[in-house]
């Protein structure tokens, strides 16, 4: 009798543990993929992260080959997007279209953007993302990080997420050190026109970076930068910038790399290193925080100022619909269009629905 009770007791115990595990898993995963796609807004790290454990890095010949291929015909300049499982996997959030699908669609639907696919290097941080990239026949590079599995373990993702962001900074530093200029793009950025035609070609400009809201003066350090899209030239000054930035990894507990860069800018790093930095006008390099005023000029649209992946996907779909409508109209007239309001992103902040308010 007693042993039966004990058996039942331990069975209940095991069941309880199992249920809690399932709960934790489901509870933490959506918040992981959401955070992954946030540009810089939102509660990033509630947990204290131990950054002193060093990221183990290894690149090898594979990286040189990948960079040489992706920069072909583009003067040692590559376009880099970093993806993991959460970006590429179908049905992650019960939505048939992934952010990565929309990202690639934009290159197809954009004006003069199709050939840029050849210069795009997809950096996959886990096997699922790499397999998806290979399947699509893109330029793919598998970024290995020993001792950290960016695709698997989910319970401690907050910490893993921050680590992954720092991993990105160290990877971009490595690309600069190898002599390549780069455009870094998040995958929630729609490429509607060729950005190289709008970025300054002046080689004295070391970094050109997107902003949430443009203040009118391209040299003003008062801008709130957004690291979701930037063009950086490879030289000693930019390498120092990335080294200094990455050097803060162990002294920035709970801070995202973008916030660390913002702190460095406030502390005057650009002047200190003699960097010439252009802050990009949202007329061309726009986002949901500030729509481009002219669809005839817009180059990129970033789903910034948005809190969840579902909201981003829904509103980016509407943006691409607007764009397709414009391309149809464009054939016979010189019209501008009004962007559909980013309703899903708006309510993602817990604000009342503007449509229903009339
Ligand atoms: C952080 O990691 C280092 C090295 O792995 C370890 O020595 C240290 O005790 C850890 N600190 C905390 C607070 O976990
Ligand atoms: C390519 O880059 C080099 C070095 O930055 C520069 O001197 C040259 O003018 C560039 N060529 C073109 C076609 O942009
Ligand atoms: C690039 O910018 C520098 C500094 O503003 C300027 O002196 C130079 O004339 C520019 N070069 C070109 C080719 O426009
Ligand atoms: C870490 O940051 C604190 C405060 O910002 C500063 O006083 C300290 O010197 C920094 N430590 C290192 C090792 O950079
Ligand atoms: C866009 O909105 C403005 C002001 O709300 C309106 O005057 C204009 O006609 C609209 N344009 C189009 C193409 O719908
Ligand atoms: C906002 O409200 C309208 C009308 O009630 C509804 O059709 C729409 O789906 C809502 N949008 C969001 C993002 O909730």
From TrEMBL:
Keyword line: Membrane, Transferase, Transmembrane, Transmembrane helix
Transmembrane segments: 7-27
Ranges for domain Nucleotide-diphospho-sugar transferase: 116-316
InterPro entries, alphabetized: At1g28695/At4g15970-like, Nucl-diP-sugar_transferase
One Pfam family hit: Nucleotid_trans
Keyword Transferase: yes
GO molecular function: transferase activity
Name used for this protein in its record: Nucleotide-diphospho-sugar transferase family protein
Species per Swiss-Prot/TrEMBL record: Medicago truncatula
């Amino acid at each position: 009798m007693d042993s039966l009770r004990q058996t039942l007791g331990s069975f209940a115990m095991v069941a309880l543990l199992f249920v809690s595990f399932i709960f934790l898993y489901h509870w933490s995963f959506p918040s992981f993929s959401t955070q992954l796609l946030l540009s810089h807004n939102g509660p990033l790290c509630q947990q204290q992260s131990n950054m002193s454990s060093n990221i183990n890095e290894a690149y090898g010949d594979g990286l040189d080959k990948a960079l040489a291929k992706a920069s072909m015909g583009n003067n040692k300049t590559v376009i880099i997007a970093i993806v993991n499982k959460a970006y590429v996997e179908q049905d992650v959030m019960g939505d048939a279209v992934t952010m990565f699908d929309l990202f690639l669609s934009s290159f197809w639907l954009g004006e003069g953007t199709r050939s840029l696919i050849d210069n795009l290097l997809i950096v996959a941080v886990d096997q699922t993302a790499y397999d998806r990239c290979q399947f699509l026949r893109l330029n793919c590079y598998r970024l290995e990080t020993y001792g950290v599995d960016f695709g698997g373990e989910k319970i401690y993702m907050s910490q893993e997420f921050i680590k992954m962001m720092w991993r990105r900074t160290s990877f971009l530093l490595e690309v600069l050190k190898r002599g390549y200029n780069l455009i870094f793009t998040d995958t929630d950025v729609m490429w509607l026109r060729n950005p190289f035609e709008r970025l300054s070609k002046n080689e004295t400009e070391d970094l050109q970076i997107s902003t949430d809201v443009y203040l009118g003066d391209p040299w003003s350090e008062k801008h709130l930068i957004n690291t979701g899209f930037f063009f950086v030239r490879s030289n000693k000054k930019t390498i120092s910038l990335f080294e200094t930035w990455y050097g803060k990894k162990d002294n920035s507990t709970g801070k995202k790399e973008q916030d660390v860069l913002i702190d460095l800018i406030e502390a005057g790093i650009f002047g200190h290193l003699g960097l010439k930095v252009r802050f990009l006008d949202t007329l061309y390099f726009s986002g949901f925080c500030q729509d481009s005023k002219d669809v005839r000029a817009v180059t990129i649209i970033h789903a910034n100022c948005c809190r969840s992946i579902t909201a981003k996907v829904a509103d980016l779909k509407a943006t691409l619909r607007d764009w397709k409508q414009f391309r149809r109209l464009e054939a016979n007239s010189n019209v501008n269009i009004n962007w559909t309001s980013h309703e899903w992103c708006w309510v993602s902040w817990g604000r009342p629905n503007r449509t229903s308010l009339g």
